[in-house]
Amino acid sequence: MTENADATGTDVSRRRVLQAGGTALAGLTFASSASAHESDAERGRGADASGRGAVDRTLIEDGIVVSVDPDIGVQYGADVLVEDGRISRIEADIEDADADVIDASDAVVLPGFVNTHLHTWQAGVRGVAGNWTFLEYLETMLGEISAQYEPRDAYLGNLFGAVEQLNAGTTTVLDWFHIANTPRHTDAAIDGLADAGIRALFAHGPPGDDSATWWEDSGVTHPDDIRRLHEERFPSEDGLLSLAMGIRGPDYSTDEVVTDDIELARELGIPASMHIGSLGGGGVEKLHELGLLGDDLNYVHGNRLSAEEFALIGDSGGSLSTTPEVEMQMGMGMPALGDAIDGGAIPSVGVDIVSNVSGDMFTQNRMALQVQRALDNQPTVERGEQIQSVSLSAHRALELMTIEGARALGMESEIGSLTPGKRADITLIRADDIGTAPVHDPVQTAVFQAGVANVDTVLVDGRVVKRDGDLYNATAKRRREQLVRSGERVLRESGLLEDGRFQR
Ligand SMILES: [Zn+2]
């Protein structure tokens, strides 16, 4: 199942090649070589299994650097030096003869994006939920499809779901995993993330094969397997993967379960994320009554929460993940971004499900921004007057999918901005494409003009995972047909195919 397993034995030969001089472009060399063994290099790492040893100096030269760090701001014609996985300097004209040079003279250099809510496993059932309501989704996805997932499907879903994120410039995801049908499913999903080479907070959730037990006012506490994961698998050796709990919360489980689950997360010292407020309000009030609010809690959707509830989230240091496109389609309510900001909650953006919408953060972030502006404008419009200014700025929107996302996941000291000392998670957008040139305001280019097609180069933890528009992940390339077959099998066994075609 895992590439870790079938890659053992190839490490030695790979190191030999790396030592023979394939340092800077090791990722490219392996990804493009037909004879390459499956290995970490196929995950786009270009390093040994520990993540050390290959590309330790990269110089991103002469770019428009949009740091999202208030002390650094936007710098034109600046160089970003990456050493041992961290950003070491951002200055003009850095000289480093030993570094692998990435020419960014036609690029906008951004922090890698942070997607704070993704059910990564659904990549194999891409594009089926576009006509579903929320209740239809719960009934079909969590009532039928999720039960058909085997560990192999979980692996492929997470591998491809994560690679899709990297391809679109997103370097960190919160993976909300709710098909923990067996520990093997969970291990396979974690392996999928590892083989993708993404930075992820893996939010271990409940099984997906018995939605009545786990999702309908559930009296069953979180699966014990979380203790094994905490002891044995996290944080991952390369430091890219860490653990969270995906809990049902007050909308889907009893007060006793909510209390037990949050206390367990706190005992383990890991954050917890929950869906809340998309069926009705009052959930955060309930958490408040139970004395459970805290800065380790992430709230997803939140559409029907009251202003008071957002103030409670804000006062307790919690965060919101808004996933506007899915929320608006499925009837959860209007996106709550503005309410979260007003209440002082950490505002962030997520994709939610590629079974429904595209996985790129450009789309969701822009939608989050423009929907909120429309909501803010509407009272003025209804008075028959003209607005005097827009509410949220483009720069604020860029923060939502970078530094605020990092804050929402408790990772802001390590990622979320281009700041010397932080891990080197970096996305380059081509500034000379037909849809991006000319760049008069690089922030507006990133927020309003750019899309997946303009993502040129992506680094995670200093490792190049995409360069010149090419993804470095031969594992994904080789397994793509497996993903297609996996998705077809799952849908067929869910009763959603007729004559081999999706019907719903
Ligand atoms: Zn969700």
The average pLDDT is: 91
Rg from Cα: 22 Å
Distance between the termini: 31 Å
Indicate the CATH architecture of the largest domain: Alpha-Beta Barrel
Helix share of residues? 25-40%
Strand element count: 19
Which parts are unreliable, with pLDDT below 50 for 5 consecutive residues or more? 1-53
Strand content: 15-25%
Rough shape? globular
Hetero groups bound? zinc ion
Q: Main sheet?
A: 9 strands, mixed
Tell me the name of the CATH class of the largest domain: Alpha Beta
Specify the number of helices. 18
Computed structural class: alpha/beta
Output the CATH homologous superfamily of the largest domain. Metal-dependent hydrolases
Instruction: State the CATH topology of the largest domain.
Output: TIM Barrel
Domains, number = 2
Structure commentary:
There is one protein chain. With 504 residues, the protein is of the alpha/beta class. It has two domains: 152 residues, Urease, subunit C, domain 1 (Roll), CATH 2.30.40.10; 296 residues, Metal-dependent hydrolases (TIM Barrel), CATH 3.20.20.140. The strands form three sheets. Strands 1, 2, 3, 4, 5, 14, 15, 16 and 17 form a nine-stranded mixed sheet that branches. The two termini are 31 Å apart. Bound molecules: zinc ion (ZN). Zinc ion binds next to loops. The site of zinc ion has 6 residues, from loops.
